[in-house]
Amino acid sequence: MPECDAHPGDRTTLIRAALNRAADEDDYLDSDYACKAIAAAATLTAQLPGGQPIDSPYAPEFLRGGNRLKVPEDLAALAVRAIDRIMADDSEWRDLWQDATDGDTNAAFDAVHGLRTALSAVREGA
């Protein structure tokens, strides 16, 4: 993914673009845009005090190395809006994960709800 190798000064801009693309979609939200927004929200959440570090082998090298991003305060609220849009009825990502789930447990939904909870706490000043 080209965003992983982005210049450090461009990373926040790329995160904002991914979140805006999902949050501002008025039509059916494509899962590719949703996936990028979820990755952006996870990156933001990892930057929070006490945030869950991202150590997946699929994560960008700069995150696995423990580097930090300078995160503008408004990004948490934007990320919450993007997550709400991703979890809306007219989202391909939501439809795909709903169809893939048997029973009441949905680890993907739980993970996204966890991101939203952490980002909402920042937005509300907790």
Structure characteristics:
6 helices; mainly alpha; 57% helix; 126 residues; single chain
Structure overview:
The protein has 126 residues and is mainly alpha-helical. Helix content is 57%, strand content 0%. It has helices spanning 11-23, 31-47, 61-64, 74-86, 92-99, 107-123.
Q: What does the overall shape look like?
A: globular
In quaternary terms, these chains amount to single chain
Radius of gyration, in angstroms, nearest whole number: 14 Å
Beta-strand residue percentage: under 5%
Q: Output the structural class.
A: mainly alpha
Mean pLDDT: 86
Major sheet attributes: none
What level of helicity do the residues show?
A: 55-70%
Total number of beta strands: 0
**How many helices does DSSP assign?**
6
What's the N-to-C terminus distance? Answer: 34 Å
What is the H/E order? HHHHHH
The low-confidence runs, each spanning 5 or more residues with pLDDT under 50, are none
What's this model, at a glance?
With 126 residues, the chain is an all-alpha fold. The chain is built from 6 helices and no strands.
